[in-house]
User: Fold these one by one.
Assistant:
Number 1:
Amino acid sequence: MFIAMNRFKVVKGQEAAFEAVWSSRKSRLDEMPGFLAFHLLKGPAKEDHTLYSSHTSWASKADFTAWTTSEQFRESHRNAGQPRPAPLYLGHPEFEGFETILSEINPQTPRHAAA
């Protein structure tokens, strides 16, 4: 499994606008072979920002790489660089990619929740 994460430092007061951008877009992830799950995570608040992370799980790194070069990726990110009345986040998102070395899943967890 491969996990791809982007960290965003969202400007204080722009959290709702940032979340609305994500919830209103059509990701098209479900059209991609190897896509397992997506999560938008909200982390701790700092003095000038709130930390967020987008988190996708893929069957393999190759599946993730195929996503990044796909028409679906281009379409879902088409408006990412559009100017906004106020900046939503500080700096650029920080990408982190991880290949799974060890996994443990509670056998009592429903199959759809384990991804």
Number 2:
Amino acid sequence: MGTEARRRASRLASLPFERAGSANGSAVSGFASAVREAWSHRELLDLLIRRELKARYKDSSLGFLWSLIRPLVMLAIYYFAIGKILGAERGIPQFAIFVFSGLTLWGLFSEIISGGTMSILSNAGLIKKVYLPREIFPLASTGSAMFNFAVQLVVLIFATVVLLQIPWQIEILYAPLAILVVAVFGIAFSLFLSAVNVYLRDVQYLVEVSLLIGFWISPIVYSFGFVVDALGRAGLPGWVTEIYLANPITIAILAFQKAFWIAGSTPEAGAIYPEHLGLRLVVMIIVGLLCVWGAQRVFSRLQGNFAQEI
């Protein structure tokens, strides 16, 4: 080794070790440090969101129009298969708006979870080469999902205008609360699942099955009134309904439908909503934020070996 190389090695050896990223610290300070670090990299987060959106429709002739085509095709399938053929629309006025409002919000949750679960593995090259707060990868997937949701929300609003069902009522305020519920629980699940998926690759397949089950146990293609009637005919006690409503996505979808599906608010429609829906939304938001905190702490514990595992 030459003299200059030895001198350089000596200088490096004299330097103190510095931790890359935020220290774990206590439960509160560690979480706050992670939030500050993610915020300091917000420009990078914006670039990652743009990259995900561009990569999704790369070399596609229609580009971002696919974010419209897919939900519209799903709407047509459920409207004709479930509404017309199976006759679900007979008890649900303006069935198209009812279904599309549920599909729109569920699509946001599903995309956050599925994209977030794969976010660390999909960015293995970056994680191995440079340091940056790893939480921004699930957050980038959330940002990409929010963009697609915004496009579909425009379609939903346009549909209410065309069908003369414009949601001017005060219940429209339920919509932002419902979106917030989905966002916080989506971020919590994506942080947790993205970290666990690095060590246990079966998680991504379990997520696919769970989302399929979650879709059908949520009141998207059937109304909450059908659930209440079915449980009543079965002679089950009221607490079974409360268990069904313990699902935060169910509460969010019901609130979103109440915001946009004004045909369901008429006496003739006979739509049923749980009591204290606004309070339930607030409680779910608080619980969701606690879940985000817990998921980030798990993520922080597991991220140390990401580079080696992927």
Number 3:
Amino acid sequence: MIQEANPFLAVRREDEGIVIVTLDRAPANAISRDTYDQLRTVFNTLSRDPDVRAIVFTGNGRLFCGGNEVGDFVDLGFEAANTYLAHARLCYAAIYDCEVPVIGAINGAAAGTGLILASLCDIRVVSEKASFLLPEINIGLAGGACHLARLVGQGTARLMAYTGCKLGPEEARRVGLADIVVQPEDVVSRALELAREIAKKNPLAVRLAKAGLNRNETQSVKEGFEFECDLIATALQTPLAAEAIRSFAFKRSPAPASEEPRRAG
């Protein structure tokens, strides 16, 4: 099992190709350099696994993630800081580039690094007791806000980065950071429900859809749609899509079909 080599994470495989990844680093699920590396390894491994259809990412206890392990930055010089932060960048890339949808089950506060981790998820199911903030400015640091700005826009991202202000779940939903808000006890179950809905779809088509959406964030609309056309043409070649189209065209029920998902790259 993946979790045996990752003391700060719990990785549990559910049915239907769903995996739950849980931050488990009491008391605040703060992220150390080792935790960055463990998250990177887990998400890269799950991304390459053809049996995985969706991932639920959450935290153990009252917090989703309280931020970076502040002690790691004591007396850290410029070069050493950049070396350390390279571990963070590779971790974030592994989550963002994961080929299957990552559903954040945000069970409590997501602060600093925790807010970035939440922002990297495809969809966020948020507890009514959750909160979001970039507190780094309050201790004289500049927090990373580019991943947040993708979701909430420059104005809200700058407000949070410059002041350290906190967003509650409803305000987070209003600005586009929270997608679904539920009772605290329902966060993981609602995220699993959504993961199971995704898992029923053509697995390659889901991976292709994510690849297209990720690429579109860094391309013009015309370039993005050109890339999407290639993805659509690829999906059309899968047995599941071909059977579904024939069934719809001839008004009959689709025949049972099974298909091993291939990588979207």
Number 4:
Amino acid sequence: MFTPKLETASRELAAKNGWADHEGEWREVERAVLPHVTPVPIGRVGMADDIANAVAFLSSSLVGYITGVDLRIDGGMMPAI
């Protein structure tokens, strides 16, 4: 999950290894660092909005016929078993 600490650490890794301009846009740093650290299949770090959007959906009337689900909000990190 994206946090200021994760961003700082990612920027430090980018600078140390020459993967990206550590002072550049976050998305550029993220794309450069992520494959080396944690290769997330979706290609980006999870954001709080990813969780909030799932909660909003599950709290809405759109789920009136759902009785149970294992909802993974992990960018594809853990394949379904």
